[in-house]
Amino acid sequence: MTTFTDDLGADVPLPDPPRRVVSLVPALTEAVEYTTPGLIVGATDYCTHPPDLDVPRVGGSKYPTAGAAAELRPDLVLANAEENRPQDVQALRDAGIPVWVMEAPGTVPAALASLRALLTGPLAGCAGTPADGVPAWLAEAERLWLTEPRPVRARAVVPVWRKPWVVLGRDTFGGDVLRRLGVDHVYTGADERYPRPKLDQLRQRFADGEADLLVLPDEPWEFTDGDGPDAFPGVPYVLVSGRYLTWYGPSLVAAHGELSAVLP
């Protein structure tokens, strides 16, 4: 029996490298399945990558069915402190199922460090994992992202939801992705990670010259040319992939170039 320690300091005892993993986190589902194909035996309805992932679904990320996850007889369940409820994690642990909880990363380096800890810790030795536990995509993501951020050349408002409006605030992974590519966002000093300002307050940021760019991802709200910019007449905007902006995992490799290409 080997006991690992997850991001929140909880013990995760495993007798052997897991052979059956249920993931409650879309980004972790992609990272693990990309690294060790076939290891994921259950995922949430929102685990859309890899696109050909064909496994039983256990509900949404925020409200998964713990019983459905347990019925899949996983050796390990992957969760996230922000995306999954503590009571669901505890229900699985009470059923005798080890659960690894990833802390919600506030920066790209924090996300990469957490992924490295998972892949070189409880998942080390799984079929397909390199001897040192570090897959090529993770090494490449670290090479691309663990550098000095580019000089700030734009200040943005970054909505992630509408009805009501919700924007990126303090200590968010997506905010740090943008910052490292030279785009700061005006709510980085907010008290909340996801503030809910009124539309007139958002517009005022542009009127006052505090912001000069609107960044609109296609998830969780699917902003488009006709849904989002209409609320900010005359404001320069860019549409970006929500996956590239907010998912940590193999997508980070492509995200660096793809986001650089569309940002000012």
From TrEMBL:
By its UniProt entry, which InterPro entries does this protein fall under? ABC_Transporter_SBP, Vit_B12_bind_prot
Signal sequence, start to end? none
* Similarity-based family: Belongs to the bacterial solute-binding protein 8 family.
- Recorded protein name is ABC-type Fe3+-hydroxamate transport system substrate-binding protein
Q: Which organism is it from?
A: Prauserella sediminis
Q: What is the lineage of its organism?
A: Bacteria, Bacillati, Actinomycetota, Actinomycetes, Pseudonocardiales
